[in-house]
């Protein structure tokens, strides 16, 4: 059973009080350039998923509290939450530095100079 | 050693001291014609059919833990083939037909029990959905039928057929040839059969890297050293994403935990498999008398092989409502397996962008029933370096072309 804390309203609840929203930080390619999206880019957006065994960055919704979406960093092996942050934000630098595998690649240029 | 009543009698007189091991535990050779990663049902079946149908006996199956110790030993052993889409019907029906003869073929009892399987219709929507599936299945030549509530009650006397139930039984979709088999037996039978044909099954050997030379796969790095091969077949279910990442490939897969449980053993009360998809629960009774119970998967990505209590509570609630007689049963064991979910809830049997690297994954919550069919077509795919006709619709390219095999509506939670 996961115990989750909403960073927006501060309520602490079990996973049934929240809704899982899957992988974080996915951007829709067609939003910026709808005419020049290849089939593979659309496939990556819709179906390809980071599925790490370890630290994962994901979306949750505070279903039975304030109703807001937020981001969380959770280890998929231990199920420990390493931190929470806003739905429009990137993870705190310390969390980005903990990322491994494809998440580490994703955060690489965002960490430049930090 | 051939198993028979005579070998049993001979060993009994000898205090069972001379039974041979059912398979060897060899050290890996430096090089093989092909390597299968993952000694679950699908991986062992792949190796078995590569040796049997394609004469490839210089192959190895590499397993991180012990064979059949992942999802093969953790599922609820249900076998059926009544899927909606033609591509699914073809592969699950092939598997179902192969299952029927496996015990004889292996000389090893997999306890295949085609005892009948009911998928309850508890909403008008579900009733119409299964009617549609029933028509599709009849066109494909599958023997399945829609039955009414009275017939359901006749087949399953312990079911709650009350009008006042939260989700009253409106009927059921019945596959008389559906049923169960002993899951360990299936893995052990394939392992023994493959081993007898010369396949090396290497347990306690973790793959740590997939070696590439440009676009060609050349082997794997393992905890027992480097093993070379020009063909590597990945059959690692919930760990497919992590293994494929070693070869630099991303997969359209997310891994979640699916739990199951068994009750204390009781006298026979149910002799068919019942799936209640609207309320998320399914149940059958094992030969030992335990009720084997499964339900919906936990919603979040998970590699822990243990899920949340809330998912079990949800399943138990659904089944107590459907079968009030079980309300005071104690549950003996509960466990979780890491299942690999694709976007359209159909599997991936495919070549990849890396030459010599093949993948068989994405079986999600429904892998056990498909083991023989999956192994049969994947062995052909790997041996001939092109998709078997039945595997062809399940290629990775379907995600680019949008040509999905959408079973999530047809089968809902239960597989």
Mind explaining what this structure looks like?
- The complex is a heterodimer of chains A (114) and B (415).
- In chain A, 23% of the residues lie in helices and 27% in strands.
- Chain A has 114 residues and is α+β, with helices and mostly antiparallel strands.
- Chain A has one domain: Folate-binding superfamily (Folate-binding fold), CATH 3.30.2270.
- The radius of gyration of chain A is 15 Å and the shape is globular.
- Chain B is of the alpha/beta class.
- Chain B is built from eleven helices and 19 strands.
- In chain B, strand 1, helix 2 (41-54) and strand 2 form a beta-alpha-beta unit.
- In chain B, helix 2 packs across helix 9.
- The radius of gyration of chain B is 21 Å and the shape is globular.
The fraction of residues assigned to DSSP E strands of chain B is: 15-25%
Q: What is the oligomeric state here?
A: heterodimer
Mean pLDDT of chain B: 95
Q: For the CA atoms, what is the radius of gyration of chain A?
A: 15 Å
User: How does the overall form of chain A come out from the CA principal axes?
Assistant: globular
Order of helices and strands of chain B: HEHEEHEHEHEEHEEEEEHEEEEHEEEHHH
Largest sheet of chain B: 8 strands, mixed
Return the CATH architecture of chain A.
2-Layer Sandwich
Which CATH class of the domain at 112-179 and 254-341 in chain B?
Alpha Beta
Q: Which structural class matches the secondary elements of chain B?
A: alpha/beta
CATH architecture of the domain at 112-179 and 254-341 in chain B: 2-Layer Sandwich
CATH fold-level label of chain A: Folate-binding fold
Largest interface: A-B, 29 and 25 residues
User: What fold name stands as the CATH topology of the domain at 112-179 and 254-341 in chain B?
Assistant: D-Amino Acid Oxidase, Chain A, domain 2
Strand order of the largest sheet of chain A: 3-4-5-6
Distance between the termini of chain A: 35 Å
Number of strands of chain A: 6
Structural class of chain A: alpha+beta
> CATH superfamily name of the domain at 112-179 and 254-341 in chain B?
D-Amino Acid Oxidase, subunit A, domain 2
Total tally of structural domains of chain A: 1
């Amino acid at each position: 059973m996961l115990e989750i804390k909403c960073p927006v309203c501060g309520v602490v609840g079990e996973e049934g009080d929240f809704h899982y929203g899957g992988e974080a930080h996915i951007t829709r390619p067609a939003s910026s350039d709808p005419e020049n999206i290849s089939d593979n880019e659309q496939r990556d957006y819709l179906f390809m998923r980071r599925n790490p065994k370890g630290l994962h960055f994901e979306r949750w919704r505070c279903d039975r509290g304030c109703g807001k979406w937020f981001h969380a960093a959770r280890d998929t092996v231990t199920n420990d939450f390493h931190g929470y942050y806003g739905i429009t934000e990137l993870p705190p630098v310390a969390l980005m530095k903990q990322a491994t595998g494809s998440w580490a690649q994703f955060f690489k240029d965002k960490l430049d100079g930090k | 050693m051939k198993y028979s009543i005579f070998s049993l009698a001979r060993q009994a007189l000898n205090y069972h001291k001379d039974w041979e091991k059912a398979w060897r535990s060899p050290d890996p050779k430096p090089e093989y014609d092909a390597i299968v990663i993952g000694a679950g049902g699908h991986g062992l079946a792949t190796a078995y059919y590569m040796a049997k149908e394609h004469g490839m006996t210089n192959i190895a199956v590499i397993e991180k833990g012990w064979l059949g110790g992942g999802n093969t030993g953790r599922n609820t052993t249900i076998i059926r083939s009544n899927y909606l889409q033609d591509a699914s019907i073809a592969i699950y029906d092939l598997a179902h037909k192969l299952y029927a003869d496996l015990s004889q073929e292996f000389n090893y009892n997999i306890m295949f029990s085609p005892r009948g399987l009911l998928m309850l219709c508890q909403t008008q929507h579900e009733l119409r959905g299964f009617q549609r599936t029933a028509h599709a299945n009849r066109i494909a030549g599958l023997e399945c039928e829609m039955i009414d509530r009275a017939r359901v009650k006749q087949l399953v006397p312990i079911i709650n057929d009350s009008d006042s139930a939260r989700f009253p039984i409106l009927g059921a979709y019945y596959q008389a040839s559906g049923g169960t088999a002993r899951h360990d037996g299936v893995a052990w039978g394939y392992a023994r059969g493959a081993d007898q044909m010369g396949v090396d099954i290497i347990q306690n050997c973790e793959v740590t890297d997939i070696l590439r030379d440009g676009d060609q796969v050349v082997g794997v790095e393992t905890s027992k050293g480097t093993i070379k091969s020009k063909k590597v077949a990945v059959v690692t279910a919930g760990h497919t994403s992590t293994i494929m990442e070693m070869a630099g490939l991303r997969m359209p897969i997310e891994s979640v935990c699916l739990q199951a449980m068994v009750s204390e053993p009781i006298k026979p009360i149910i002799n068919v498999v019942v799936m209640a998809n609207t309320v998320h629960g399914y149940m059958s009774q094992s030969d030992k008398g335990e009720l084997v119970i499964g339900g919906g998967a936990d919603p979040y990505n998970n590699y822990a092989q243990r899920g949340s209590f809330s998912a079990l509570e949800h399943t138990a609630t659904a089944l107590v409502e459907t079968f009030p007689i079980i309300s005071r049963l104690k549950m003996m064991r509960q466990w979780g397996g890491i299942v690999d979910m694709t976007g359209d809830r159909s599997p991936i049997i495919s070549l990849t962008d890396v030459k010599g690297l093949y993948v068989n994954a994405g079986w999600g919550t429904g892998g056990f029933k498909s083991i023989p069919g999956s192994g049969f077509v994947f062995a052909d795919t790997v041996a001939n370096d092109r998709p078997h006709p039945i595997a062809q619709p399940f290629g990775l390219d379907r995600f680019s072309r949008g040509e999905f095999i959408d079973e999530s509506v047809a089968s809902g939670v239960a597989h």
